[in-house]
Specification:
345 residues, alpha/beta
Length: 345
């Protein structure tokens, strides 16, 4: 389904089938909207085996059936529903099989996003409603389960990042690749952070706009690892997205949460206020990436946002709606066919 599909001004539903979680946003244009998240671990084992497990596909399909009911209950028309899949589905040899089964479960075609699109949507979502100086650059950091996106640019209505890149490191991938012990051994943590910094060296070399600008930019963090670290720092239980959105996470606090979680056994880690028990197995892997980023570019603060890729897709929908409405009004005024000569043929 194209994001350019015209729809009314009512609710919009967006679904994200990620590597670690499957998420739903129903946006009515006010506030943070209805947000649902289920830890489905779609990408478990993909880094090593190259394929999505049958039980993982089944877990996501079950959640998508649940979301389908929620979408119907909120009377979201099919023309205002969009669903995407990201890193795990991109990497897996049987990704097309997953997309077919997931699309059937949701009754909406699941679109496979490439890494650049994922980074662009994360930037659009994270910078929605972001105030500050119009010339101040931001670096949006989206740590997912299988990949991490970096998007650098100046926020603004409809703004796109100046530079964006997706890197194959994420909380699930890093956990499976480096953190075999419970709790992780110091040498495992050191390896995870060191390899993450090698990827950041690559960004410095291959994307110098990001590399040169990161230290002076405002770091804006989105997605599960960063919002979870913020929630653990606050001791936020139950989780409240309104508290997290706009929270400033210092590097010192991020390092402190990392040390706490990394030195605990999983059985103890799950009891930290603010940490969803299902996210506990992979949170240390995500923390390794977060602290590597802040150390590498000498960044002292991260502005945490609840708005992310889902909100970026919603913003594109809304822009398409405005354009469609304007075209319709123009056609009604001039008597032309909406869409111009091409639409009339």
């Amino acid at each position: 389904m194209s994001a350019a599909t015209a729809m009314g001004s009512g609710p919009i539903a967006v679904v994200d089938c990620g590597t670690n979680s499957t998420r739903l946003l129903i946006d009515d244009g006010e506030g943070l909207g209805l947000r649902m998240l289920r830890i489905t671990r779609l990408g478990s084992g993909v880094d090593a085996g190259g394929s999505l497990a049958g039980d993982a596909i089944a877990r996501v399909a079950d959640v998508l059936k649940e979301y389908r009911t929620v979408i119907e209950d909120h009377q979201v028309p099919l023309s205002a529903v969009r669903a995407v899949a990201t890193s795990a589905a991109r990497d897996a040899a049987n990704g097309s099989e997953f997309l077919q089964r997931a699309s059937e479960a949701l009754d909406t075609e699941i679109e496979l996003l490439d890494g650049d699109s994922e980074a662009n949507y994360a930037f659009a979502g994270a910078t929605t409603g972001l105030g500050g100086n119009a010339s101040t650059a931001v670096l949006v950091l989206d740590i997912g389960g299988g990949s991490t996106e970096f998007a650098y640019g100046v926020p603004g209505t409809g703004a796109r990042p100046t530079e964006a890149v997706s890197v194959d490191m994420g909380s699930v991938r890093w956990t499976e690749r480096f953190l075999a012990s419970d709790p992780p051994q110091p040498e495992e943590l050191s390896s995870a952070i060191s390899v993450a910094r090698l990827y950041l060296d690559d960004i410095d070399r291959e994307h110098p706009v990001i590399g040169r600008g990161a230290s002076a930019a405002q770091l804006v963090g989105v997605a599960g690892t960063i919002t979870t670290v913020a929630a653990v720092e606050i001791g936020l239980d139950p989780y409240d997205p309104d508290v997290i959105d706009g929270f400033v996470l210092t590097r010192a606090a991020a390092e402190d949460v990392f040390r706490t979680l990394a030195t605990e056994r999983l059985a103890d880690r799950v009891h930290n206020p603010g940490l969803h028990p299902d996210r506990a197995p992979v949170i240390v892997g995500g923390c390794c990436i977060l602290v590597a980023v802040m150390r590498h570019w000498g960044i002292d603060e991260c502005l945490v946002r609840e708005r992310d890729l889902l909100d970026g897709i919603v913003a594109e929908f809304r822009e398409a709606q405005v354009s469609s409405d304007a075209e319709l009004r123009r056609a009604q005024t001039t008597g032309e066919t909406p869409g111009g000569d091409d639409a009339a043929r």
